[in-house]
Amino acid sequence: MSYRISLATQFTGNFKHLKRHIKEVLKRKGVGHILQTTQVNDSQKQTSLFMEGDSNALYTVQTELVSHLQSIFPGIVIQDWQEMASDSPLFGSHIAPTLGSISRDSSGFVEELTEQPTFEISQKPELKWKDYFNSGFIQVVTAIQNGRQVAYEIQSSVESIKEKFVHMTYKRTTVYINIGACITWTQLKQVIEECDDLQIQNPIKKIYSLADGDKSYIQEWFGFKADGHYYVETEDDLDKKYTTMEEFFDKLKTDQDMSDSQVAIAKEKFGEQGITFKQIMATGELALNEAKLKEIGISQLGLRTAILSVIKSNQ
């Protein structure tokens, strides 16, 4: 069973661009977080990290983050991670000012926080913020609460923004779905996976659009355009090979964006010539090529290219 938690730690060492590397990993994973650096002395810094999310996913991200940082900064010292219960979600990336100064790259807070709160938070295991976040990082507790309030305000305002509908296709089913309320990549995938009409059984791996017949994978959740047409790939789909002619014709439509009439032409010409699955998978001199496809009556260049692309993807 998973539940929402917070994980926190401190990194010790005077490493250039440490916060940038941490931020890039967590942003890519869609994990809300707060970072703050404390200048211990002229040659030593402590960078404190607070991140919040689903318990199972967060520990996976923690492992990846630690491995990534240790590969780049071999001498980095990482304090024991502390787990606490989360009372509300934290969205986005927030860089708190370095204590004693205003941080150049601060994206969330523009002035140093001086008040130290005395409140307690329900935790698992039992642990007070103040007991762990020493060396000034206790001030981020106030920032966390402010950040959460901002997150709720942002989420409320996003829900009031005009709806954004897109065409989303999985296998042979296309739905017109509203993604306007999604503000993270994780939320977007969840909305798509929970769409009953699409019947997605496995986690979404990639989403792409088609540009001149080629797949163009979406890298950021905000890269979707209203009324755009997008295609879903799951982990199972990426590993699965087609084994029948019907699956081959399906891929002409789903992977190559061929119309029903174009697929019908391919079926007709292949049927007339008695071309079966074994023939389309033939290699060497027996392999189908553009000249052979043209010879059997497939005159459209786009359809010939699509057929050869689907054949190649299965070899």
Low-confidence parts, pLDDT < 50 over ≥5 residues? 100-142
Give me the count of strands: 11
Number of separate helices: 11
H-E order: EHEEHEEEHHEEHEEEHHHHHH
User: Which structural class best describes the helix and strand composition?
Assistant: alpha+beta
Distance between the termini: 40 Å
Q: What share of residues are in beta strands?
A: 15-25%
The value of Rg in angstroms is: 26 Å
The helix content is 25-40%
Largest sheet descriptor: 6 strands, mixed
In terms of quaternary structure, what is this?
A: single chain
Averaged pLDDT = 77
Principal-axis shape equals elongated
InterPro entries: SAM/pointed_sf
In short:
This protein is of the alpha+beta class. It is built from 11 helices and 11 strands.
Index terms:
about 325 residues; about 20% strand; six-stranded mixed β-sheet; alpha+beta; five-stranded mixed β-sheet; single chain; SAM/pointed_sf
